[in-house]
Amino acid sequence: MKRFVALKVNGEEYDIDIEPNRLLLHALREDVGLTGTKEGCSIGVCGACSVIVDGKLVSSCLTLALACQGKEITTIEGLAKDGRLHPLQQAFLEYGGFQCGVCTPGQIMAAKALLDANPNPTEEEVKEWMSGNLCRCTGYYKILEAVMAAAHNKISSDFQVKHERKTAKIQSLNVYKDS
Amino acid sequence: MGFELLQPRSLAEALEMKKSYGEEAKVLAGGTDFLVLLKDQKLKAEVVMSLRGIRELNFIRHEEGKGVTLGALATHGAVAASAIIRQRFPDLAEACAQVGAVQVQNLGTVGGNLCNASPAADAAPPLLLMDASLILASARGERRISIHDFFQGPRRTVLQADEILKEIFIPQIPGRRGATYLKLGRRKAMEIAIVGIGVAIHLNGSDQVVSDCRIALGSVAPTPLRARHGEEILRNQEIRDELIEEAAEVAAEEASPISDVRASREYRLDMIRVLCRRAIPAALASARGNKVEGLS
């Protein structure tokens, strides 16, 4: 029998009716409609579904959605503010901390939870903390670089402006449009 | 995996529910094992009782001169980060820090780790070293049992149909204690132990003569166990390499590992010896470095 739950995701409240066995992962993706959080192994081993609940990094595939009533849930969609990327998001772009991108939302959420708790981690601390986030494209070094860059504010201030300009220029070339 | 979900807000409410539902209501704490078992259909549940909303079970309490009590919902993450546990029971902190990774440590509980009764439960060997006791509660009342009497076999414990694990009590240990937990897996994170070994060394007065040595093994028998004959070899002795070697041999003889997907019986027996040879000196060094007497 479906039950009502109010999920507070990225500061907004979503009232949904779900089965008691609904996992937070599926409630976020299918009921709330935020598909940034990815499903990987679904048994709490790969970290792709990592989200932050009441300040703690958790696997959303190991959490019942009904148990999250009244809790503050943060997903990858909650990081960018007013059109500005979160420093970690920008660092992952700038330092190429991803390849296929499936693990990236989980990687970024894990890194965010780390920097929230420890703003100045060593490389070893980052590796240890992120050991629960698998990347099957094997791009770990660049992920590490991106997290360290975000921690030490080594991201360019004009990255987003340049990126947007470049995108606009490519689009203006008209090559992708029908003639 | 459809089920009815019970969400009691207090222990009293949970015990009443367990009284009326009995065996039918499966108890969910952190969910890191439970939900995976349900998904794999290794566990069937019509009714699931989640303890997550019971705040009174989520604590770590230290009473000087008595010991430390963990509420059944204390997570691996909270235990691994607790200053008192890290200082006085480093083996338990190390074990909890080696369960899964951060995402799992923030959900999984030490209580759930014990109640699942996996032979590989990481929290079990350290708690066996400490002679911890468990408070089991039901609507009929409470009983206290030793952790040594808790496990009955793989995934079987002495918990009755109407009972819930309420607290884990770690008693004060006299003298200076040093301890470590070593876990062997194919990689560091997100692993189930192939072999897990806890060793505690107690010193009383002398830095040389070991007043007590305790060895606990995980993943090498139907339940986690103490290697009591191996311990005997080091008790009241001055530790020498030959004695460590002998204790490691004897400890391996006390285990009865199986061959499974993770490792063969022979490999596990060999690794008990290797890990004992590493853990005993490490525990001794940790005891010698511990200058505080009468740690609880």
Write the layout of secondary structure elements.
The complex is a heterodimer of chains A (179) and B (296).
Chain A: E1 3-9, E2 12-18, H1 24-32, E3 50-53, E4 56-59, E5 72-74, H2 87-94, H3 104-117, H4 123-129, H5 140-151, H6 159-172
Parallel strand pairs in A: 1-5
Antiparallel strand pairs in A: 1-2, 3-4, 3-5
Helix pairs in contact in A: 2-5
Chain B: E1 4-6, H1 11-21, E2 25-28, H2 34-39, E3 47-50, E4 60-63, E5 67-71, H3 76-81, H4 83-88, H5 90-97, H6 102-105, H7 110-116, H8 124-129, E6 133-138, E7 141-146, E8 151-153, E9 156-157, E10 164-171, E11 176-184, E12 195-203, E13 210-218, E14 225-226, H9 228-234, H10 241-254, H11 265-289
Parallel strand pairs in B: 1-3, 2-3
Antiparallel strand pairs in B: 4-5, 5-10, 6-7, 6-10, 8-9, 11-12, 12-13, 13-14
Question: How is this structure best described in words?
Answer:
The complex is a heterodimer of chains A (179) and B (296). Chain A is an alpha+beta fold and 179 residues long. Chain A has two domains: 3-78, Ubiquitin-like (UB roll), CATH 3.10.20; 87-170, [2Fe-2S]-binding domain (DNA polymerase, domain 1, Orthogonal Bundle). Chain A has helices spanning 24-32, 87-94, 104-117, 123-129, 140-151, 159-172, and strands at 3-9, 12-18, 50-53, 56-59, 72-74. Chain A has a five-stranded mixed β-sheet, sandwiched between helices. In chain A, helix 2 crosses helix 5 (140-151). The relative contact order of chain A is 0.14. The model of chain A has no long low-confidence stretch (mean pLDDT 94). With 296 residues, chain B is α+β, with helices and mostly antiparallel strands. In chain B, strand 8 (151-153) and strand 9 form a beta hairpin. Chain B starts with a strand and ends in a 7-residue tail after the last helix. The A-B interface holds A 1, 3, 19-21, 23, 42-45, 47, 50, 56-59, 61-64, 66-67, 110, 113, 129, 131-133 and B 1-5, 7, 28, 30-32, 35-36, 38-39, 48, 50, 52-53, 77, 100-104, 106-107, 188-190.
